[in-house]
Amino acid sequence: MSKTVSPVDLSSLRRSRRRRGQGGKRQRRISAILRAFSNKRDAVQDDPTIGDLSQAFDTRAFGAFFVLFGGLNLVPLPPGASTIFGLPLILFALQLAIGRHRLWLPDKVRMIRLKPETLRTLMNRVGPLIRRAERLARHRFWPQPERVLLSAVGWMCLFLAVIVAIPFPLTNMAPGVAIALAGIAITARDGLWLIAAALLGVASVLFLVFVYGAAVLALINIL
């Protein structure tokens, strides 16, 4: 007699499979991978490249790079750095928007190096938040069909990434965090985190429209 599998058991089985890679091994969390790269202090080894990170992230590359490059906007960076980090985000988001299942990286992007010090600063600043979000995230309330949903997430993140890349004050932080939240959402297939990302994205856009709209109106009145 075959054993009946309850919906709860089936859901648990699906979550377990998502957490495990090929060969049945449990996948490392994104924060653990970033922490490992940030702790590299071997002078013989070169700085890690985007390609190295992509290989480590494997099938979770879209979500992981959203977390990485979105989270970098919370780190104090020199002027113009948001544009440098916003351009790869545009590339990643565009691919998700048009329905790619695996991330493709041009050779020039693949060879971009990230200093371990930069990753260390990121993990020291937002690492605890990323780890907490990963612990709270789980497969729930994930709409179907998934392909349509991921495409919509890609278009949303593409729009926010363009804003991040604009080298104006206040344009990068909140949209960057929204992209990072979307990365956590699509990695864990968590609908609640996706809602949080969408709400923050909309709020950040409305805030920027209000601030820069008021500035433009004030300038027009002065002239």
Strand and helix map with partners:
Blueprint: H1 7-19, H2 30-38, H3 50-57, H4 61-71, H5 81-97, H6 107-110, H7 116-136, H8 146-165, H9 173-188, H10 191-222
Helix pairs in contact: 2-7, 4-5, 4-9, 5-8, 8-9, 9-10
Describe this structure in words.
The chain is built from ten helices and no strands. It has 223 residues and is mostly helical. Helix 4 runs antiparallel to helix 5 and helix 8 runs antiparallel to helix 9. 31% of the residues are buried. The model is unreliable at 1-14 and 16-24 (pLDDT under 50).
Task: Fill in the keyword field for this structure.
mainly alpha; 0% strand; 223 residues
Dominant shape = globular
The share of residues in helices is 55-70%
| Elements, N to C (H/E) | HHHHHHHHHH
Number of strands: 0
Mean of pLDDT? 80
Per DSSP, the total helix count is 10
Largest pleated sheet = none
Quick take:
The protein is 68% helix and 0% strand.
